[in-house]
Batch of 2 targets.
Target 1
Amino acid sequence: MKAASEIRLGLGIMLGMQALMTLGAIGALSRMSPAIERIITENEVSIEAVEDMLAALASPDAAQRRKDFEVALQKARDNVTEDEEKPLIEAIGNEGKAVLSGANTDSGSLVRSLRALSDVNRSSMHRADDRAKRLGAAGAWTAVLIGLASFLASAFVFRRISRRILAPIEELRSVIEARRERDPHRRIAMRAATADLQSVGDALNDLIETRKEEGGARSDMLAAERAALILLLDRSTEAVAVVDRSGRIAAANTACDILLSSATGPRLKAMLESVPSGQAPPHVRVEDARGQAWICFLGEMLALKDTIRPA
């Protein structure tokens, strides 16, 4: 897989997990809303009906008391949500008629029935509230699990991108830096890289090998040229040295090597180091090789020994 495809896949996984977590939270909240709505629309109506009937019983006007009681009783009948409510509402209706008509002056049984109806609805509200809490807890844990899965997926994607993209790029950088420091043995090794980065690494390794072979061939050529140069210098009976631009003796014939190893060698080296700056001694004949090197003819060895004294 290419690096661009790898990055797109990782981002797609993370975005998908975020979308899943959002949808899960929305689903949990949407399930909680009906449970809360049921508490308000169903049980609250029955409790209000009980309160209205109790208020009607306390009214001093008999006609108004009967009317208010019948309206509240009908509201309770129209809002039956629990099986326990039906017999209680029938009992309330019968006992209410007796109390309101004056046939029964003891309203204690009616009040107990009204309280029982209120308790049934309160119990139903508590059960609905428990269901809503359980849904809320389930939604919260669902969000936690989805969040954990999203975190693990993100960690996996980051590790994969680091292993297949970031680490190979760092490997490429380190190899290029090693080549700048003249390290001939450093090579690129990235087995887990993406296909395109692997092809770049292989191409760079091939280029390094080609440069190494070219460098070896060039070194061989320079060695051959140096050997040929020394052979030509040795044909001269006088001491001859080749000095580069830094004043270093790049080549010398045998006569010059003998002279350099003698007691006058240090003084002779100091004299040759000044040749590139144009300060050659009078007895040294210098030929300029296009500003890249200077061929110094030091005269006959015996004559040179007579003119140079140790420092």
Target 2
Amino acid sequence: MTTGRSDEQFRRVRLGNIKRLLLDRYGPTLPDDDAGLADLFELLLPVSMRSSPERFMRNVIETWAPWMDAERAFDLIRQIETTPIRLRLRTAKNLGERLNLTNQERERLALRTIAAADMTDEQMAEWRRVKKNKRNRLYMQRARRKAGTNSQATSISRRKPWTTLGISRSSWYRGQRVRQSVRQIHGQVNSYIGNHETVSPRLLRRKKMETVKGQRFRKKVSKEEKDEARVTERDTTDFESKTTKLSHVRSDVTTVQLNDTKQSINQTSILPDSNICNFPISCRVFIREIVPVPLGPAGDDLADFR
């Protein structure tokens, strides 16, 4: 049992189909003859099934049949309103016969709610079956094409390339499996090299040699860096040891010079106080810098202190 909403949807779809057919046949205006009047009557039947039908039927008459006067339009509306509801609901076959619809027009305009008048029910069933098979075949073709498969017309079984090569079918497929494995290996190599370019064995050998040379060069550079770091470390150690030895020698020379200076001060008579010459605790001698100089006779090195 259909609901009110589905009936209203069917009514709107059928009204649209009738308008499409009349617009294709006559244009925006129906002819002023018996055929135009009959087509206008069939157009007004779906309109009369809606709410407030009189106003909408008058609007349809003014649009599609402007040549009709008000009195004839009033009589046509009254005739439709007095028609029983069961007679207003045309079947698809009855409406197709009244509109003289052909199957070519039906398929071209996609009129799904009107049946063709030039085909019987058996012919329509066979036509629907053929269309369904064609639709399913096209759907499967699109699905196979999307999955990456070839059509049957260009399939290997139809072309039979082994007959051209003069070998058996099994031998040809064995060769294809070997070629497929080689293509997979080349594809993996190409993915590492980039840009999916074709790699020849000569190019592979060249790439391998460049890689080996690069590794040898890196090993050579790292070895030279290690040798240079070892030499630098050895030189630094030698420099530190030499610096330490020189500091010890400098301290020894300074001690010897200080002792000689004290002895020279004790031997001079320029300082009257002997306690100062003996360097008591209260005597402070400030020496800014002691430089190793050659010592002369006693008393000569005291000229700087005068």
